[in-house]
Structures are given as C-alpha cells and as structure tokens.
Amino acid sequence: MKRLNLILGILLVAASLFAIRSWRNAQRAQEELRALQAEKDELIQNQRASALEQAQTRLADQSDPEHRELLRLRGEANQLRAAATNAQKLQAENQQLRSENQRLRDNAASAASASSSPGGKDPFARANWAFSGYATPDAALVSAISAMKDGNPKAYLESLSPEEQARMSKVWENKSEAEIAAKHQSDVAAISGMQILDRKTISPDEVQMNVYIQGVNRFEKVIMKQVDGQWKFGGFSPDPKK
C-alpha cells in the first residue's frame, strides 16, 4: 500500500512539472507571437511610409515628364476659363455700349426733328447762315447755302460731293468766278430761311431730306452724302411729278 502511494505521488509530481513546463512554453510562444505581430505591423507601416515618400518625391520632381504635362494641362485649362470669363464680360459691355449709342442717336434724331418742324424755332433762318463745317448733313447744307449767299464759289465747290462737283464744273466751264458768285447770290436772294421737314436714311453714307425753302415757298428733296467722314451736298433729287 505504501508503495502504491509513493508511485502515485511520483506520478502527480511529474504531471505537475509537465503542466508547469507546458504553461511556460505556451507563455513564451504567445510572447514570440506578439513580438512577430509587432514586427509585422512595423514593417507594413514602414513600407507605407516609404511608398508615400516616393510618390511625393515623384510629384515634386519637376523633371518628371508626366508631372510637367499635368502642370501644362492645368495651366491651359485656367487660361481657357479666364478667356471665357473675359469674353462674356466684353460681350456684355459691347451690348451695353450699342444700346447706349442707339439711345443717343434716337435722342439726337428726336431733338433735330423737333427743332426743324414747321411752327417751331427755325435754326436755318437766313440771318444764321454761316460756315458750319461738315460734321452733320444739316451743317453741310447750311455751309453750302452760306457759300452761295457770300458769293464764294470755291467754298461752295468744297461743300459738294464728288459727283456734284464734277457736274457743276461742267456747268461753270465757260464762266468766270465773278459770274458764278453773282449767279449764286441771285439764286438765294429771295430765300429767307429753310426748314427740314423730315429725313430719310438711304444708306449709312446717304441721307435724303425734304426741305421747305422759305421766301420762295418751294419744297425740295435734298441729297446729302458722306465722303471720308464728312457730309457734302449731293444736289437735288428730281421730283417724278415734275
């Protein structure tokens, strides 16, 4: 009996020693596993950091053809956007200027029509005839008739369109300057003033005006033509009724 208990005690001690040794081995294995996992995580993190650093270095490298092409395309896209914005802005400004110019032309036409209408103040009375330049059809007409009143054939010829100059040169071909001056003064002697009743735009460079000639009580259709930016008297439009 004592021998059996001794054997059982020895076996129990051996089993305990084996269990302790197995537990220690398991502990060491877990520690090694944790160490390996930590090493693995560190390697993965290092690889990611290295890859990111390489990518940033490649993008920062101005000698990289792909990077240069990317920058060029971005620059062109920015320029195109800026050009489109400027074009829209200029288009809006041009439209505004056209509207303003049209408004000013309409106002000027209304003012001219009102000032020259029958019964209103006559700006073309004989007392007001003087050289007025050639900036407008009205001014050019006054300049022409003023030259006739003053007996100045050269000034009158200057106030004519090229076609009318050629026609009048043939009419005056055998007449002296004094004879022409006297004829002009005689032609306008009975005229006391003019009224422009209406205007008709034939083309951007030609205007037809219906004029009432006071003193002789006659209506005439006058042609005014623009030549090199200046308006000139183009003669009288024939009346089909006559």
- Tell me the distance between the termini: 168 Å
Overall structural class, as computed from helix and strand content, comes to alpha+beta
Count of spatially separate domains: 2
CATH topology of the largest domain, anyone? Nuclear Transport Factor 2, Chain: A
Strand order of the largest sheet: 1-2-3-4-5
* Proportion of helical residues: 55-70%
| Mean pLDDT over all positions | 79
Give the total of beta strands: 5
Number of helices: 6
**How would you describe the shape?**
rod-shaped
- Rg of Cα set: 53 Å
List low-pLDDT spans.
Answer: 113-121
Helix-strand topology string: HHEHHHHEEEE
Largest sheet: 5 strands, antiparallel
The CATH level-2 architecture of the largest domain is identified as Roll
Task: Give the percentage of residues in beta strands.
Answer: 15-25%
CATH class of the largest domain: Alpha Beta
Your description of this structure?
The protein is an alpha+beta fold. The protein folds into 2 domains: 2-60; 122-236, Nuclear Transport Factor 2, Chain: A, CATH 3.10.450.50. It has helices at residues 2-60, 65-116, 137-150, 153-158, 162-171, 177-188, and strands spanning 124-125, 193-203, 206-214, 218-227, 230-236. It has a 5-stranded antiparallel sheet with strand order 1-2-3-4-5. The longest helix is centred in the first third of the chain and has 59 residues, at 2-60. The protein is rod-shaped and about 175 Å long. It starts with a helix and ends in a 6-residue tail after the last strand. Residues 113-121 have low confidence and may be disordered.
